[in-house]
Every structure is written in structure tokens, then in C-alpha cells.
Amino acid sequence: MNHSTNIRPKDIRYYLKDIKKQLLLTHSRKETTSIIEMLQVSINEFIEDNPTATMEDLKTHFSDYTSLNDMELYNIDSKILEEKLNYSKTIKRIAAVILFLVILAFIIYVVLYVKSYIDVQNSIPAYEVIEIK
Amino acid sequence: MNKNEEAMITKLKRSTTEVLLLSLLSQKDMYGYQLTAEMKQQSNGLCNYNETTFYPILNRLLNQNMISMTRMITDQQRVRVYYHLEESGKEYYEDLKRACRLYMTTIDKILSSTEVNNNEPFN
């Protein structure tokens, strides 16, 4: 692949990263990886065919990630979208339960710590009576 | 084309991308850039898609074994990935085409009838 053009490999990486983020909203990780691979191949073809192309030309041809998402949300099977939304809800619920348990454990730890501190404080004699015979 | 027309075309484009892609692949095997170019040319610029929008659909069709993908080296020593419509894809395409035609004919009938009604003089 010849990158002696106006398009830097770094810019392509950023572009693909943006596309990947959007694809992950509507596709599984495996599907996203596969789509990104296809896109990468096509970008290479585009650069070979258009050696003087700029990053703007590339974005115009391949689309920016917002229009991709717009298109994808419409094309995606409603059942898949429902599954994704349910999955997202489940993840949020699990995260909420874990957060609750962590906070609860922290509170219990603090209570026990304070209690043990008080016990230790109480176990230390304030004064000692020494009987002199 | 005014803004309303453009918006309507965009909505129609979204729902017909898959059948149009299959239609192009039923003509001959094509690679990514060629699909975009052919789509634009055959529609006189009306179906001007960004290439990226094709890949999620192509990927789904690949997973469903409707199409296959072949790497080829051109005369200029360039690697091209060609997409080929498989037998199951051809059947699927025929189903989509029939449904599309039926729907478009119905829409056309309804739209034409409103034009006729509008032209009729009041009694």
C-alpha cells in the first residue's frame, strides 16, 4: 500500500476508530471487526486508485460515521435492535447491582472498623489502680 | 430537487440499499468501489451512496452465505476483493425484487389515482 499520498496512516486509523465506535452500537464485536476489515481493504483500493486523494476525499467517498449510523439504524433488523437494547438494559442492571454491593460492603467495612476502634479504645484502661502494700 | 424531495429520496434509499446491491451483483461480480460507481451511474446519480454504508449489508449477506468474496490480483498488481452472488442469494434477490415491484406498483397506483381525482371537475 502506498501512503506517500496526502492521507496519513494515522488519519485512517482515527477514521476507522470512529466508524468502529458507531458500528458497535448496532453490531456485535465480531461483526464490527469483520466490517472494519472489509472497509480497510476498500480504503487501500481507494488510495491505490486515487494517489492524490486527501482525507476529505476519503471521507466524502466512504461517508462519515454519523451518516453511517443513520443508515445502519434504519437497516438493522428490529429484532436485533431490540436484543441490543435489552442487552444494554441488562448490563445497566448488573452494573447497578454491583455498585450497590460495593457500597454496601464499604459501609459494612466502615461500621466494623469504627466498632473495632471503639472496642479497642474501651479495652484500654483509662487508669490503673496500684495497690501499695 | 428541493429539500422535501431529497428527504424522501434518502428515506427510500435507506430501505432499498440491500435489494439494489443484490441487483448489481446479479449483473456481475464487483468490488467495493465498483459497486458505488455502478450504483451512481445506473441511477443517473440519484442513488449516490457512500461506500461505507454497503459493508454492514455485505457483511450480513456474507454471513448468510448469500454472497461470497474472492481476492483477485489485477493486471496492475492490485488486490481487489470481488463480491459474488451465490445461488441462495439469487433466490433471495428474486424474492426481494418481487416484493419491491409489488409495493412500488401499489404505491404508483395510489399516487396515480390521487392525481386523477384531483383532475376531475367538481360536480
From TrEMBL, chain B:
InterPro entries listed in its UniProt record: Metal_resp_DNA-bind_regulator, Tscrpt_reg_PadR_N, WH-like_DNA-bd_sf, WH_DNA-bd_sf
Domain of life of the source: Bacteria
Domain (Transcription regulator PadR N-terminal) ranges: 21-94
Protein name as it appears in the record: PadR family transcriptional regulator
Organism encoding this protein: Coprococcus catus
Lineage per the UniProt record: Bacteria, Bacillati, Bacillota, Clostridia, Lachnospirales
